[in-house]
């Protein structure tokens, strides 16, 4: 379960192992250790609660990057993306519990099943999407048994059979499970296992509808998950400058894709990307300040919608999602380090001040 009280607000940043984004081409080694450590420290200094260490085929190992981040910081939580199915769940559970002990209880797992058959094939995984989600459910069953069982346990599933499984190392406290996915198979797993369900930056109507479906899936299991929203704030001193910056980021993204010889983005296989593209098809500026043009340009490959405006305006837009039930905000910029510093200096304080004034609670501030 989550370590946080139900209504506590949590901010999560993003750990890029080098300077790269949709609008900045990667250069040099895939791991820039100094950049990674500085980026992590900027999040800690800026008041973030956690930092996401992502997983995708061909990327540096997320668990080892998280260990480096843990060594470079003192209190920053680690949200470690882990593609279930590639490591035996008993082994992965011991890895996560070991790192949790070494970092003083800072570890969380973002369990990902994979939404693109082509990317999964790069690591030799050829299961169907529904099969991957079913495997994830078994993986999390076994991981939680490893973290909690006081005696050896057996488990017999379709994908895993464990006889006498046991872990000597236990986490400091229950490791929170973050989970996303909007297909029926994904929602079934979310209902059973998600402590925090992760949405991408969708419209208010889409977020309201999906939160309702997740709550309905969790209710039969007696569970009440938290909800996270992933979005890319684009800030400036004035609204006009913020929108100009957003258009400049879009132009750089287009130019970079053209330089790589990339044509129109392929049709996405995962439901989350399809939902973002469905929103983008209705307009580039939705609700108060949701900007969808970069998502449309990139085929919504990941978290790619933005909230555009001054820090106070974007804080107000985040409060709209808070009113829908979102309590965790996963935010990252198109200029990762510079934006993380700016978020810590302006956006997080603006949000907390506005929440405190609207709710009248000192805790929010």
TrEMBL record:
Domain Luciferase-like: from-to ranges: 18-327
GO MF entry, a single one: alkanesulfonate monooxygenase activity
BP GO terms, sorted: alkanesulfonate catabolic process
A Pfam family of this chain: Bac_luciferase
Keyword Translocase recorded: no
Alphabetized InterPro entries for the sequence: Luciferase-like_dom (IPR011251), Luciferase-like_sf (IPR036661), SsuD_RutA_monooxygenase (IPR050172)
This protein's UniProt keywords: Flavoprotein, FMN, Monooxygenase, Oxidoreductase
Family matches, as Gene3D superfamilies: Luciferase-like domain
PANTHER family assigned: ALKANESULFONATE MONOOXYGENASE, BLL6451 PROTEIN
Protein name: Alkanesulfonate monooxygenase
Lineage: Bacteria, Pseudomonadati, Pseudomonadota, Alphaproteobacteria, Hyphomicrobiales
């Amino acid at each position: 379960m989550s370590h946080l009280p139900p209504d506590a607000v949590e901010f999560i940043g993003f750990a890029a192992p080098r300077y790269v984004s949709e609008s900045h081409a990667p250069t040099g080694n895939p791991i820039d250790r100094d950049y990674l450590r500085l980026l992590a420290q900027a999040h800690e200094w800026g008041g973030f609660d956690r930092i996401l260490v992502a997983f995708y085929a061909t990327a540096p190992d997320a668990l080892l990057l998280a260990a480096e981040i843990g060594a470079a910081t003192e209190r920053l939580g680690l949200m470690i993306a882990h593609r279930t199915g590639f490591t035996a769940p008993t082994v992965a559970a011991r890895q996560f519990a070991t790192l949790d002990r070494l970092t003083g209880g800072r570890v969380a797992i973002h369990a990902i099943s994979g939404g693109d058959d082509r990317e999964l094939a790069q690591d030799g995984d050829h299961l169907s999407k529904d099969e991957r989600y079913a495997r994830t459910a078994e993986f999390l069953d076994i991981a939680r048994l490893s973290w909690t069982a006081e005696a050896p346990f057996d488990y017999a599933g379709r994908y895993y059979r464990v006889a006498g499984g046991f872990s000597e190392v236990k986490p400091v406290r229950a490791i929170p499970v973050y989970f996303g996915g909007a297909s029926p198979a994904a929602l079934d797993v979310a209902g059973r296992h998600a402590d925090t369900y992760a949405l991408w930056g969708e419209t208010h109507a889409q977020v309201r509808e999906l939160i309702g479906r997740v709550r309905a899936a969790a209710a039969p299991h007696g569970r009440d998950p938290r909800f996270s929203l992933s979005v890319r704030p684009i800030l400036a001193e004035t609204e006009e400058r913020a929108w100009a910056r957003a258009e400049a980021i879009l132009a750089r993204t287009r130019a970079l894709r053209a330089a790589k010889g990339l044509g129109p983005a392929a049709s996405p296989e995962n439901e989350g990307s399809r939902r973002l593209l469905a929103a983008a098809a209705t307009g580039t500026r939705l609700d108060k300040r949701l900007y969808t043009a970069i998502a449309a340009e990139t085929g919504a490959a990941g978290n790619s919608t933005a909230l555009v405006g001054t820090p106070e305006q974007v804080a107000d837009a985040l409060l709209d999602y808070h009113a829908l039930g979102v309590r965790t905000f996963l935010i990252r910029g198109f200029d990762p380090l510079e934006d993380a510093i700016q978020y810590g200096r302006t956006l997080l304080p603006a949000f907390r001040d506005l929440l405190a004034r609207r709710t009248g609670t000192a805790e929010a501030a």
